[in-house]
TrEMBL record:
This is DNA ligase. It catalyses: NAD(+) + (deoxyribonucleotide)n-3'-hydroxyl + 5'-phospho-(deoxyribonucleotide)m = (deoxyribonucleotide)n+m + AMP + beta-nicotinamide D-nucleotide. One of its GO terms (cellular component) is cytosol. NAD(+) binds at residues 34-38, 83-84, 114, 137, 174, 291, 315. It comes from Novilysobacter ciconiae. The gene is ligA. GO terms for molecular function: DNA ligase (NAD+) activity; metal ion binding. Zn(2+) binds at residues 409, 412, 433. Its EC number is 6.5.1.2.
């Protein structure tokens, strides 16, 4: 094996670094983490030092940033914008201080010390106190003119305060994105399915280099000043720290964390102090900057190729690192939300070992296209959970598969269901899922549900953690002894063991009260009970509506989801989630246990008579969301087929005979061929038959004032939905139809009624406006 060839390695490093710089500075889309870039750069510096013949002016070690992209006009900096030498260890800082002491022949020099915010360096030019031009650093000599974008950053003054400003003033500083704004922006993007920002530095650089200033204006950018460039027509103070105060007086934000520090000890103390507070700062910092404070000393020290000798960036451990994604797991939260979680080969990030990171949601996994085995960049900043920000390109195994959300909850095995129209997946085992247990019990006991006074969050925690309760049903088997024992264990764990007679009495009173509250909750109303079950999307008013329409838990728990849509205010999403809840055997088992435990619903009654008119086949077919089957077609079918089950084995030509166009008929046939659909339709048919038997017969003596009349509703009503009006009219004996014909008894025309109203007028059919409808309904209440 031949020894590694330094010239080849140097060439390879330069290629890699140039490529990375281009992506980082020009595309604002870094491929590798900064820490890796820094390591490569150090390796190159080492090789160039050992082999001076390999060094060259075009090496990345000699250059600042990258040339402008050409998308903006270029700006030549009157005074170049340089980079900073950097240090990763205390020893390197000691060398820096020592070099300065030797060159200046003085000990314990004074430094201005500042946080190093991670954003984008810019230069702002003011003429006669007005902001005239702003530019990026670019390659240090030439930057990009981003004046229009900078004008949208509120922290940048457009005119200077006071009047003692120089005729020309260049201010240098960093545009950055504060963490709060960054997180808010990303949360919104994730909820809307948009593209989140990889990190705040990327957010700042990408936002500022937008071609449309309106986009920049919408991004939460901030600015702080840390230096001056060209100054004409005035003297600056003799030190950097005094200049910062001057800048603040002129109206520029200057970091409140800036200090003055003396000698090596002062620098390191400052570094430690901010380092400890790094996670709590409102912005990302990647280190601190030490600058010799007096300008005379700065001038004497001068520059090396790309950085001043009088300044140093002392870096903190990097907040982004690359590692391998070993697996994607799914975490179920307290409310049942499923979050994909990355298991990683452990890696140090920001000084902490990280082996897990969030992937937020299934959409995010798809957007990043992260796959098991990929090399990924993980980011940990502040007290936020570490997250995967991107996949490192070009390192994927050829057989890596795209990831998919599992179909069942990894904790309880219930179905995982996607919220309609949302990015969230949930476990539908609300009552049995151990992950959701505490939330379920707290909700069940809450005041507007079963109202168990005294069962607060803390006791729910203890009951579950110590194993006294695994589901809401277990509450009804708790004994006084159980509660006393639990309280003892809780006190012991908290280190408070007041073993006195008085404490014993207090505990006994507490336990007795809680038992009494649990007993008292046994008799409840159906609405409270349904609300207490904690079905996703079922709030108090939906629970009330369900109770009012269906009357009895025994009925509700057996209904297939489409029938829940018969309740006027329940839409598809809610109907689905109620159906999914009752489809889980585990949830049903807990309901059985509650009944066995003596929970009694005091207001059970037959289904509402309003339901009678709402159980037609046409409505059901519409609710089933069968492709191509419009309401009109559904009504045609319902006119021929008496009930749902008759559709099940009907050959397609019978659908055509019923008046369906060929494509609709075959879409229906295809839908019915799916066993799950056929099963659902059959269940719906049976449920309708059962409901019809349960609904009390209308009083035989009064056959309903609208008996024998057909009504067509059209347009929009103000006081109620059309569905609601329809079911109320049907409760009074009317039959409803979807289109106007000679057989129509009367038409209810709301706001913006169209062709149906015209047809009714043409046929001379009786027309009711909303006022007449309301008057009629009022009279027959
Ligand atoms: N990931 C990648 O692919 C990639 C590629 C290129 C560069 N980088 C990263 O970019 C950085 C190198 O860029 P650099 O040459 O600008 O060096 P630098 O960012 O380490 O230091 C110089 C910059 O610090 C900033 N700064 C912040 N606070 C300051 C203060 N108080 N006083 C003075 N300056 C302050 C200024 O923008 C200045 O231009 C490294 O962190 C490197 O990892 C990453
Ligand atoms: Zn679950």
């Amino acid at each position: 094996m031949s020894a590694p060839d330094p010239a080849a390695r140097v060439a390879e490093l330069r290629r890699q670094l140039d490529d990375a710089s281009y992506r980082y500075y020009v595309l604002d889309d870094a491929a590798i983490p900064d820490a890796e870039y820094d390591a490569l750069l150090r390796e190159l510096e080492g090789l160039e030092a050992a082999h001076p013949e390999l060094a060259g002016a075009d090496s990345p070690t000699q250059r600042v940033g990258a040339p402008p992209s050409g998308a903006f006009a270029s700006v030549t900096h009157a005074i170049p914008m340089l980079s900073l030498g950097n240090a990763f260890s205390d020893d390197e800082v000691a060398d820096f201080v020592q070099r300065i002491e030797q060159r200046l022949e003085r000990s314990d020099p004074v430094f201005s010390v500042e946080p190093k915010l991670d954003g984008l360096a810019i230069s702002l030019r003011y003429e006669d106190g007005r902001f005239v031009q702003g530019a990026t650093r670019g390659d240090g000599a030439t930057g990009e003119d981003v004046t229009a974008n900078l004008r949208t950053v509120k922290a940048i003054p457009l005119a200077l305060r006071r009047t003692d400003w120089p005729a020309v003033l260049e201010v240098r500083g960093e545009v950055y994105m504060p963490l709060a704004g960054f997180h808010r922006y990303n949360e919104r993007m994730r909820a809307e399915g948009g593209k989140p920002l990889a990190n705040p530095r990327n957010g700042a650089a990408g936002s500022l280099r937008q071609l449309d200033p309106r986009i920049t204006a919408r991004r939460p950018l901030a600015f702080y000043a840390y230096a001056v460039g060209l100054v004409e027509g005035a003297e600056l103070p003799p030190t950097h720290s005094a200049t910062l105060r001057q800048l603040r007086d002129w109206g520029f934000p200057v970091s409140a964390e800036s200090r003055v520090a003396t000698g090596l000890a002062g620098l390191l103390a400052y570094y430690r102090d901010i380092g400890e507070r790094r996670d709590r700062l409102a912005f990302d910092i990647d280190g601190v900057v030490y600058k010799l404070d007096d300008y005379a000393g700065q001038l004497e020290l001068g520059f090396v190729s790309r950085a001043p000798r009088w300044a140093l960036a002392h870096k903190f451990p990097a907040q982004e690192q690359s590692t391998v994604l070993e697996a994607i797991e799914v975490n179920i939260g307290r409310t049942g939300a499923a979050t994909p979680l990355a298991r990683l080969t452990p890696v140090q990030v920001g000084g902490v070992e990280v082996s897990r990171a969030t992937l937020h949601n299934a959409d995010q996994v798809a957007r990043l296209d992260v796959r098991v085995g990929d090399t990924v960049i993980v980011r940990r900043a502040g007290d936020v959970i570490p997250e995967i920000v991107r996949v490192v390109p070009g390192m994927r195994a050829p057989d890596a598969q795209p990831w998919q959300m599992p179909t069942v909850c990894p904790v309880c095995g219930s179905d995982l269901v996607r919220e309609e129209g949302g990015v969230v997946w949930r476990c539908s085992g609300e009552l049995i899922c151990p992950a959701q247990r505490k939330e379920a019990i707290e909700h069940f006991a809450s005041r507007r549900a079963m109202d168990i006074d005294g069962l607060g969050e803390r006791y729910v925690e203890d009951l579950v953690d110590f194993g006294y309760v695994t589901s809401v049903a277990d509450l009804y088997t708790l004994s006084l002894d159980d509660l006393l024992e639990m309280k003892c264990r809780g006190d012991e764990r908290d280190g408070t063991t007041p073993d006195t007679v008085r404490a014993g009495k207090v505990a006994t009173r507490w336990a007795e009260n809680l038992i009494a509250a649990i007993q008292g909750s046994r008799r409840t109303t159906l609405a409270r009970y349904l609300f207490g079950l904690g079905i996703q999307h079922v709030g108090e008013s939906t629970a009330k509506a369900l109770a009012e329409w269906f009357g009895d838990l025994a009925v509700i728990r057996r209904l297939p989801w489409p029938l829940f849509k018969r309740v006027p205010d329940i839409g598809s999403e809610v109907a689905h989630s109620i159906g999914q809840f009752f489809d889980q055997a585990g949830n049903q088992k807990v309901i059985d246990e509650l009944l066995a435990g003596g929970v009694e619903i005091t207001d059970a009654r037959p289904p509402s008579a309003q339901l009678r008119g709402a159980l037609g086949l046409a409505d059901l077919l519409v609710d089933l969301e069968i492709p191509k089957l419009t309401r009109l077609r559904a009504e045609q079918l319902a006119g021929v087929f008496a009930e749902a089950s008759a559709l099940l084995d009907a050959p397609v030509h019978r659908f055509i005979a019923a008046g369906l166009p060929n494509d609709t008929a075959s879409a229906l046939e295809t839908w019915l061929e799916d066993a799950e659909n056929a099963g659902l339709l059959a269940r719906c048919g049976e449920a309708i038959a059962t409901l019809e038997k349960l609904i009390p017969e209308a009083d035989a003596t009064s056959a309903g004032p609208l008996e024998g009349r057909t009504v067509v509703l059209t347009g929009t009503l103000a006081a109620m939905t059309r569905d609601e009006a329809k079911s109320r009219l049907e409760a009074l004996g009317a039959k409803s139809a979807g289109s106007v014909s000679k057989k129509t008894g009367f038409v209810v025309a709301g706001e913006a009624a169209g062709s149906k109203l015209a047809k009714a007028e043409e046929l001379g059919i009786e027309i009711w406006d909303e006022a007449k409808l309301l008057a009629f309904l009022g009279k027959h209440e």
